[in-house]
Amino acid sequence: MSPNHAPWLSRRSLLAIGAGLAAAPLLPVSAARAVDWSGVDPTVFGSTLTGLPADPTAVVLGSPGFTTHADGVGDDTAALQAAVDEASRRGIANKLGDILGGARDFPHGDGGGVVLVPEGTYRLSAPVNVWDSVRIVGYGARRPVFVLGASTPGYATGTPRDLFSFRRRPFGGPVTYANNDTFGSGLVNFDIRVEPGNPDTFAVRFAGAQLCILQDLDIHVGEGHTGIDHNANLIQRVRVFGGEIGFHAYAASAGWQTTVLDCRFEGQRRMNVRLFNDAKLVVVRTVFAGAPRAIESAVDQWQHLYLQDSHFQDIGDAAVVLNESSSIPGAENELIRGSNQLTVLNCTAAGTRDLLLLAQTGARTRTRTTPSRIKELTYGLRVERALTGQETRRDGVHADVVGTAGTAWTQRILRTDVPSLPPVSSWTSVADVAASMGRTIGAGADDREVFQAAVDRYDTVYVPIGLYLLSDTLRLRRTSNLIGLHPRQTWLRAVDGHPNFSDPDAPRALVETPRGGRNIVIGLGLDTAEQTPGSANVLWQSADGSYLADITTQFIKWHPEDVSSGDPGYTYRGRHKYNVWVRGGGGTIANVWAAAGWSDNGLFVEHTDEPARVYEVSVEHHETREVVLRGVSGWQFLGLQTEDHIYGWRSQAVEIVSSSDLLFANSVFFRVATVLGPYPYAVSVQDSERIWLRGNRGYRDKTPEFTQWGAGAIDHDTGRIVPEIEFAYVEIAG
């Protein structure tokens, strides 16, 4: 049974999971303490949505039919649940978020929507179900606060109980926890506070397959148990204070990574983060503070764990506790043994002596001084000077830890690369621009003229929930920002069959940014329609300092001509060059799902030395190539996921040509159990140098002759290979 469907453990059994895991006893609960390190932290946490966006389809909590007390005294649980239910019903009506469309024996699923919550304090007394593809979004100069009142009945029975529960509810079908058919759900820009007398509270039960987010939250667990339980895609600018466990992490459904970006876990009584079944965390610019342990794996579990540019502050026992690889059940299989991987890269520690504890042997990797800088710490297989005659291999712990890392160094590594959103008061709704032109948009006619007028006149354009048709490329200026709140409810779609999108040798994108731009484009779905072989979803040319995030494309799987299927991903085919196309661009790219499978190239990046950080990006279902890099330098891929499907077995995960200085961190190159054929390698390299693969998941135990790559990497020119598909480090020097 998938852990995302596992029955709830009792509080006693949950706390006992790790009994006997460490060679040394866990420090007592009283070791958790407040940490005053705020002067070190360069990140400003606060409201990121400062006013009410004008969106007639969103549900506003407190509006007629959803009235609240908002005083922290009266119970607002029913009003919030009613608002979430209404947002879900509106999504069913417009079908904008329903990826399944009645296929795979599911009736039409929740279409989803947005609940907007104004400033105020809202008392809750029972779990709130966050249905598939619904986002609860706070707004105001100060973030709203949801409070679980003191000694609320049901939260001190010995059994864990949620406050916010991510759920999947097919229309007319059974309710389950969110699973691999859950897309786009989220909690954004509010705070949660658990008052005393609620020891069994799990503040958020988080799960989902793609585009699910926890963003801009402060979670004060207090005497409660856990801040975040289970995980999905992106956890960004979230702080968890107190509790027994800050984050109890599992493998995201259906086995993807979870990226933890610009987060803080402080003052937990037992550990900041607990890892269960191969949680595959990608942790960047995150602080772990004031707990006996920062990160600990449950017994018998392997982990693909990656930490970069992060900080450990006043950790009493050990920063990371892992199982020794040979002790894991099934370790006689070198693929399972190799699946236990750790990378700690360019991190710092203060008041923290032991960095890594291997539980079964008691072996500890220690700092030399405090404070200290962890240049590199890995556990697992290292392949150095790969694809050459000087290739070497070694396994186990590799540590490069130095002293003298002070406050300035920690501040530098924690400084975010994510630009702040402009204040809502500066946003202009594209619907208002349409009204000023005497036009109506989102009604089935061509909306491109209105959209182009909006971005020509205003720097920040807000796109309300809806489906908008474009007959040609929407071209942004260097200072243009394009903002939506929900990528599966806010769609820009090509006019199907339009001659502007007819030439596959001269593709036009739905959205194009300029060279040198400092653009922010977030919260949108892009759909190139059906008969548009000369289209691409986006052409990104913006410079470092720009931001492309929370973006999805239409969901289409490549398939042969003679295949017909009830799955909406197979109902038509096309031939396009590009899905997401980057030419000369860079910046920060996060939480993008590129699954327009008829394109020859899922993510195609060319001719750029603009630095880029790519977080939690999923590229799936293309026929021949998922990710292609040609003439690219200075890019980091942190949590890249690719997926082949039943007919896409000829699809290569990554192709690299004439490129340099690339990092791939904690990649998952996935082949589904039903895939119909093998592929000889995941990553190919040609005429390229200084490429680092740090952490890799290529193992799957279902039909391994097809689902496991023939090799991890190959040199296209010499034919040399790295045969391992599970490793902590591969260096391709060139």
TrEMBL record:
Which intervals hold domain Rhamnogalacturonase A/B/Epimerase-like pectate lyase? 69-267
Alphabetical list of Gene3D superfamilies matching this protein = Single-stranded right-handed beta-helix, Pectin lyase-like (2.160.20.10)
- Give the signal sequence positions: 1-34
Q: Which keywords annotate this record? A: Signal
Which InterPro entries does the entry link to?
A: Pectin_lyas_fold (IPR012334), Pectin_lyase_fold/virulence (IPR011050), RHGA/B-epi-like_pectate_lyase (IPR024535), TAT_signal (IPR006311)
One Pfam family named in its UniProt record: Pect-lyase_RHGA_epim
What is this protein's name? Rhamnogalacturonase A/B/Epimerase-like pectate lyase domain-containing protein
